[in-house]
Design a protein that fits this description.
Structural class: alpha+beta
Number of helices: 19
CATH superfamily of the domain at 240-411: 2-enoyl-CoA Hydratase, Chain A, domain 1
Radius of gyration: 30 Å
Distance between the termini: 58 Å
Number of strands: 19
Strand content: 15-25%
CATH architecture of the domain at 240-411: Alpha-Beta Complex
Length: 529
């Protein structure tokens, strides 16, 4: 055993005796730390038996041989190289001596997860090969697949196996051209039943090399089943939707990928052809994406100047990103940006830049507050990787919005159920009334939705307007959702009212940068006593 000092031998003796008194299953490392910190409490005065003393000594000896560290080292003075050697020793010891055989990959993934979780940063994490593939698909903007939005229950419901259900086919994709409809069930993929597959496994089988075939068995209705062979193609991740609302262009950005800027330019060309007079940029529920994509979108609105800066702990890596001098949206055109508490990261870069530069008026709710930048690194020798925070970003007025968010210039709260409504809402959800009703009547009109909402309101004592939104959302879930829902979207209606009401310029004169708002908030804080 590697015990090199008189002090170590004394520690071993004391740990052994205490281990015997408390039982050999007592965590030896905890005993060791307690003795070193002079926090040991003897629990009994009974004499230990020779066999218990022997077992506890052996247990401690094994630990000391695997991790022979001094008291100073145990307090965190090891070098990174030494810690790496200890981890390697423990990995080998577990593989050679643990009571059951353990897969090395399981230990490796556990160690990677533990190390990155120790950062206590929700945006830094280990990525398995499956997660790396999904992330690559999302950030690259395209992947090989069939073009179906799908869902899958975790377990059987109402006696029905948890098969894959098609929520909607993506327009002009192989799945759409093959005639697959919303509501169809995918019973098996290449002969493999889907009820026993996880969602990740389903995606793995549907995605693949463009040009390769995959055969799915479709069940339509109660008992119509037929096979469909689909040739995979490059599927672009949806990133933008657009339409005209009167003479105002409406552009909704769903995420920020390499395709986002091009799709935004296509939208602007569409608006120009229809002589648009104002623009609404909707980044609600947009979780973010690529930093460069956000900067490219800001380029369309800003005539030069700073867009965002990033700062890391290494000063030479700090950067400032600027907009180009030419703009796609005229500098005097009214622009309203819609944000909410699910607008995050790249969405906040765009909203913060346009607000700080006095280029847009913000409507909706306070944004999420993710002011950090992550980078993804692949791990050599496999498909795994990790995502880690490398910098924080700052708006043009030099404000970091992490865990704070961006406040709108005009707050318009989306209607929501109260805590008092929850029991009645729970009863409605468990009854499954809305999905069943909409499934039988997929083409409900506004008047029909309102009438049904009124009946549900009387039955469950819930607000009829909120019920209308629930019914409409269910209707959208079962088909391709419209670009916008003016009848149900109070925040969008307010944005249109600001543009059409003629008050935009006056409102813009009263806006403040995020730095001004932050300084005012700090000034208003009560002094500490």
């Amino acid at each position: 055993m590697l015990m090199r000092s008189r002090r170590s031998r004394a520690v071993v003796s004391r740990v052994s005796r205490l281990g015997a008194r408390e039982g050999v299953d007592y965590p030896v490392k905890l005993l060791y730390n307690k003795i070193m910190q002079k926090q040991v409490f003897l629990l009994t005065n009974k004499k230990m038996t020779p066999i218990l003393w022997w077992l506890s000594s052996i247990a401690l000896g094994v630990v000391l041989m695997v991790t022979p560290v001094s008291y100073a080292d145990a307090q965190g003075n090891q070098s990174p190289k030494q810690y790496g050697a200890i981890i390697q020793q423990i990995l080998e010891f577990i593989q050679n001596h643990y009571v059951d055989e353990v897969d090395a990959k399981t230990l490796y993934e556990g160690a990677m997860n533990g190390m990155l979780n120790a950062l206590q940063d929700p945006h830094s994490s280990f990525l398995s090969s499956r997660e790396m593939l999904d992330l690559t698909d999302t950030t690259s903007g395209a992947f090989g697949g069939v073009g179906l939005y799908i869902s899958k229950p975790v377990e059987a419901k109402d006696g029905k196996p948890p098969y894959v259900e098609v929520a909607a086919p993506m327009e002009d994709t192989p799945g759409w051209r093959a005639g697959i409809n919303a509501g169809d069930l995918i019973i098996n993929i290449d002969g493999e039943p889907t009820d026993a597959l996880s969602m990740d496994e389903v995606l793995e089988r549907l995605r693949g090399k463009p040009g390769a075939d995959v055969t799915v068995l479709i069940r339509r209705g109660a008992d119509i089943e037929f096979p469909v062979t689909i040739t995979r193609a490059v599927i672009e991740v949806p990133t933008a939707k657009y339409a005209m609302i009167g003479d105002t262009g409406y552009l909704k950005l769903l995420t920020f990928t390499p395709m986002t800027s091009e799709r935004a330019k296509e939208a602007l060309a569409y608006f120009r052809a229809r002589n648009y007079k104002a623009l609404i940029l909707d980044v609600r529920n947009n979780y973010g994406g690529l930093l460069n994509a956000a900067i490219d979108v800001c380029d369309l609105f800003l005539d030069g100047g700073a867009v965002v800066s990033t700062k890391s702990r290494i000063p030479r890596e700090n950067r400032v990103f600027y907009a180009r001098k030419d703009v796609a949206v005229p500098v005097d055109m009214p622009v309203v940006v819609l944000i909410n508490n699910a607008s995050a990261s790249a969405s906040e870069i765009v909203a913060g830049a346009l607000k700080d530069r006095g280029r847009a008026y913000l409507v909706g709710g306070r944004s999420y507050g993710k002011g950090s930048v992550q980078q993804v690194f692949p791990i050599q020798g496999g498909g795994d990787g990790y995502k880690i925070t490398v910098a924080r970003y700052y708006t043009p007025s030099d404000v970091n919005i992490d865990k704070i968010g961006i406040p709108p210039d005009r707050e318009v709260k989306a209607p929501e159920f109260s805590d008092e409504d929850m029991p009645n809402l729970k009863a409605l959800v468990e009854a499954n009334e809305i999905p069943a009703y909409v499934k039988e009547r997929p083409n409900l009109s506004f008047a029909e939705i309102s009438a049904y909402a009124a009946r549900l309101s009387a039955k469950y004592s819930l607000d009829a307007d909120l019920l209308r939104i629930l019914i409409r959302n269910e209707q959208n879930r079962m088909a391709v959702a419209p670009v916008y829902d003016f009848d149900y979207d109070v925040q969008l209606r307010e944005a249109v009212n600001i543009i059409n009401g003629g008050s935009y310029k006056q409102l813009m004169r009263g806006t403040k940068t995020l730095r001004q708002l932050q300084d005012e908030a700090e000034t208003d804080m009560p002094a500490a006593s």
